[in-house]
Amino acid sequence: PSPRRRAEGLAALERVAADADIAAVFSTTELARTLRPALRAAPTLLRRPWLFADEPHSGVPARQLPDPEPTDLAYLQYTSGSTSTPRGVMLSHAQVVANVVVQRDRWSMDATTTMYSWLPPWHDMGLISGLFTGLQLGSTTHLAPPTAIARRPYHWLRAVSDLGIRITGGPDFMYRMAAARITDDELATLDLSRLEHAFCGAEPVRASTLEAFAERFAPAGLRLGALRPCYGLAEATLLVSAGPQGEEPVVRAFDRAALGRGKAVPAADGAPMVGCGAATHGQHVAIVDPDTHRRVPDGRVGELWTAGPSNGLGYWRRPAATEQLFRATIEGEPGTPWLCTGDLAFVDDGVIFIAGRSKDVVIVNGVNLHAPDIELVAQESDPRLLTRATAAFGIDDGGAERIVVVIETPTDLAADADADADADAIIAAVRRAVGQAFDVMPHRIVLTESGGIPKTTSGKVQRSRTRALLAAGTLPVTRDWNATRASTA
Fold first, then answer.
1. What distance in Å separates the CA atoms of residue 244 and residue 258, rounded to the nearest whole number?
2. What is the pTM of this model?
3. What is the pLDDT of residue 146?
């Protein structure tokens, strides 16, 4: 667990360890010694045997491991927990290999491919794209510590440049940070002309991020066609859809109000959205009405369902959830088991566009507003917020649902002598931007200290957890603007 969030990290590990009923903990002597005083709060971890990578095990007899069947359970891949308690997805050897093959074919990979990954190996993208794909192909993969790259994104792109990397990738926030933080002098040292695929996924892919990254690194030889937006989830092993090789990302603008009513209506001045390509080879995608289980026509928003050889066996020890989410059937199409992703999407001219998580929808005056859209508008309202973690969610005040936006305070704001005035300016900018974009004003805007918004191990904002902390009064709040109090005053 992160030293900054040790108690929270141990609690998360304890939940997973207890759910999986682990047999042992594999670690190092140094880390075990550091953690031991805190392990009283993690009884499952404390009571199981600890095996240390840096100690010999001469007394342990060797034995031949059995060859697994393709359908045997390979491992449990726990979901991020961004919208619910992490659940262990059961993945077979065949399902993992199928997804590796999907990536091999989509990125045209072979044994000569060079790849660079700083992604955490405890995250599905880091494990499968960063480790398994290279192992399967016998190709070269360079690995780096996630924290080192997050602190200084320049190291990522400098390695891509120096090593002649063909494939790399990460979440949207990393591309955004790289475009904002890499200096002109650092840019002058980069040659990104050999980069063929820079995949972007794991969280909503933003048009503004792709535009900023492409513009910033064009002088270094980056081709716009190398940026590869994609969509996937732990329940489908990893990759479900991605743009075709060599084509530039598809960005189209749609009317925000119409999207709130479930229709994708092109509009020149609408919300720019990034397409995540079409389903990869072997996987199938359907947009379904979650209430009727009927397909919806292209241009209508529904829940994205997927079927194919990469879909997991189900959730560990959760038969009811497995039956409901991994074995759904489309009305009138018996026989094929579909995975309900919980993501809202639509298809426009053959391209999949992700509209948001169904659990992250805020319904105001009958209009569906998606939390990531609200967060993006809030971040773009002030340049200081572009790289700050933001969480948007709804609260019910007893009469209607209201929008709440929580933003981590910019680091320079905390030390600014005019911090109060700056905070007021940020709140005003967010109110104005959200109101103009959605015709609905935020009911509450909360500024919290840096690192105050809880995140998953892969860096995704936990909106429901943020809402719970705010309600409990345990979120480290630095400024709290409330429309009710403001109007009363």
1. 28
2. 0.79
3. 87
